[in-house]
Each structure stands twice: as structure tokens, then as C-alpha cells.
Amino acid sequence: MTGGRIVAAEVLLTSPGRNYVTLKITTVDGVVGWGDATLNGRELAVAAYLREHLCPQLVGRDAARIEDTWQYLYRGAYWRRGPVTMTAIGAVDLALWDIKGKVAGLPVYQLLGGAVRDRVRAYTHATGWEVAQLCDAVDAATERGFSAVRVQSGVPGLDTVYGVGRGPAYEPAGRGTVPAEEVWDTAAYLRHVPGALAEVRAHTGPGLALLHDAHHRLTPIEAARLGKALEPVDLFWLEDVTPAENPDVLRRVRAHTTTPLAIGEVFSTLWEFQQLITEQLIDHARAAVTHGGGISALRRLAALADVWQVKVSPHGPSDVSPIAMAASVHVALATPNHGIQEYMGYPGQVHEVFRHAWTCTDGHLHPGDTPGLGVEVDEALAARFPYEPALLPVARRRDGSMTDW
Ligand code: GCO
Ligand code: MG
User: Fold this and answer.
1) pTM attached to this predicted model
2) Which residues sit opposite 263 in a β-bridge?
């Protein structure tokens, strides 16, 4: 049995604490595959892309032909690449791997060649407006068993800072149809962050892996300066130092600092990574499994990255659904040059709507041994949490001009 023809492809929207878009593919044999199609703040664009354009093409296709379907949808779009297209293709790819695993009676990592490690190292987030609070949050993470923690601190004079929440958990997307506006001041950030992170390092001692996300906000020379200033902190990585559009600028950053760099959560295809990898401008490729075109695409990225000693360390905030998290962890378990998996955790009843076999214990993830991806969606429960518009914030400089959030 190979899985048979696809007889239905449907899109579900649910919001158990935050919005998720889910693709459900059913075969003639009654096998169901699940894919994550969530693109934070632009959910309905992907839902429409799937419903209007891809689902009708999927019905009647052979569910077993994963790579052929990927090529068909990618090349067939003509208007290829881009986050909406690639998230939709990624969702289809995940659902088809889920079906293949269920038909074979094997977890997806076995189909990818089997485990190359016993468990997948994860990092989680710690945030604090004040350094003391941040150190407490780091301690809370290490008490949960994490050996790697992303640290984001408040900046004096700014009321809102990327990555730092007002409540117990940080969730950037805000409800409503108009985005929240934040004020950003790079000079204040650069004055404060090296000292704040040095205090965190003094608090933790040398062993703990510390990560920091600059969230696309710096110019090349500012990024170089920050990387250099952070060298004594011994970061595991400094993430998204410059905006994603121009990879060439990373050459300047690299010329000035040995702080490891991680980039790629907003990338959609292998080609956006090509120069960063082949010129060794980054140390970690941060693709998200769905946003980057699925398991099939992430494996291609890992193969290219391996040649250049770059690690693949996928994106894993709360907007990467438990289905995509499962897919990411299956790939991680079976991929030699996997680096680390981000695990932010999930709000609300996400774990009940998406019942998952993957586990996060002692700072490590494991996909479990359930056939397929190992996630089943409780559709009745999902229906009790209807989609509500939510958007990521936008950012302005102190003079009111727009900048990168
Ligand atoms: C990360 C990311 C996220 C993004 C979010 C946007 O490294 O986890 O930067 O926090 O901001 O995924 O939707
Ligand atoms: Mg990031």
C-alpha cells in the first residue's frame, strides 16, 4: 500500500491562544495527513492560497509522490518563491510525509534514514525588563533542564522592546486588524545590550549557551560593533543582525567579529541561503520547516549547508505550530548537521488541540515513535477557538519614521 489517491484537502483555522492554519489531506484509504500553514499575521493569505489554488490540484494526485508534488506546486506556480507560496507548499509537503509515515507504520525520522542522535538539543526564551529579572528567567529555564537560552533584555528609555513581554510570556502578535506601533532606538539598544548580556554571563558562569536576537534592526557596521562587543559574552549565536534582503553586507560583519551568526527565519527558499552558506557568512541557517517549503526543502538546505560546515537550526516560536515543530524535530533527529531547535513553548490550549507525540524534556526534544509526524488535531476542540485577526507590531524611530520590527 502506498497511500493512494488524495480525495480531500481542507484548511482549518483555529485560535487556541493564538492563530494557526492547518491543512488536512485525506487519501482514498482514509489516511489523514496534517500540515502546518501558519504565517503569523498573514494567515488568511495562505489559507486562501491553499483553498483556492492548491487544494483543487491535490485531489486525485497520488499521495505517495511527495517530491513530484513539491516540484509540481513549486514549478507550477510560475510566480514561485515568497512566504505565502512556500508556506502553502510546505504545508502540503508536511501532510504528505505524515501520510507516508502512517502508511509505512514508521515515524518520519525513520523514513529520513533513522536517528543520528538520541535527542535534539533545544533552546528556549528568557526575557526581562531589568537584568535581575532576566537572570531569574534564565535560572527558570535552566531549572527546566535547558542548556541553551535566548536572552532578550529591556532597554532604558524604551517602553516596548522586541522579545520582551509585559506578561509572564512573550507573544508578539496582537489581536486586531491594525498593528500595534512600537518605538525603536538603535543607539539606546547598542549602549545597553553588551553590558546587560555581560551581567547575564557573569550570573550564569561559562557553561550555559546564551543566544540573542537582534531581529533585523542593525546596519552592517552596527552589527559588526555589536558582535565585537559581545565576544566576551561568548554567545552561541547572534541572530538576524541585519535585514534579510542583502546578504552581501554580512561580509563586513564577518570581517569584524567571530561571534557566531544565525539568519534565515524569514527566508522561503534554499536560494536565499545560497550565498550565506557558500561564502560561510553564517554559522546557523534558521529556516522554519513550513515557511521554507517543508521537510523536502529543509533536507536540501541541510545537504548544502553540510558542505560548508554550516548548521541547520530551525525557527520554533509559538507561531510554528506543533505540527511544524514535529516535522522540524523529525528532521533534526535524522540530520547530522542539525545545530539546535528553538522551542519557545505554546500558549493556551494549543497542546490539547494539537495532540502530539513529541516531547520536550530536560531541554531536549524527541519526535516520538508514532507513525507519521505524530500529531493529531482535535477538530471538535479546534472549532471552539475561531480565528481572530492578529498582527505583528510595526516599529518607528523616535522621529516617527518607519523601521524594521
Ligand atoms: C524567533 C523569532 C520570532 C519572530 C516571530 C514572528 O527567533 O523566535 O524572531 O520571535 O519574531 O516568529 O512571527
Ligand atoms: Mg528570530
Assistant:
1) 0.97
2) 285
- Tell whether ligand 1 has an atom less than 6 A from the beta carbon of residue 342: yes
What residue ranges do the domains of the chain occupy?
111-370
Going from the Cα of 395 to the center of ligand 1, the distance in angstroms, rounded, reads 15
pLDDT tens string 256-283: 999 999 999 999 999 999 999 999 999 9
| DSSP labels, 142-192 | HHTT-SEEEEEE--TT-S-BTTB-SSSS----EESSS--EEEE-HHHHHHH
- The response to whether residue 83 sits with its C-beta less than 6 Å from ligand 1 reads no
Ligand 1 centre from 319 Cα, in Å?
8
Q: Is 215 marked active-site? A: yes
Distance CA 332, CA 299 (A): 10
**Residue range 314-335, pLDDT digits in tens:** 999 999 999 999 999 999 999 9
Max Cα separation, the chain? 64
CATH homologous superfamily of domain 111-370?
Answer: Enolase-like C-terminal domain (3.20.20.120)
Catalytic residue among 125, 212, 215, 284: 215
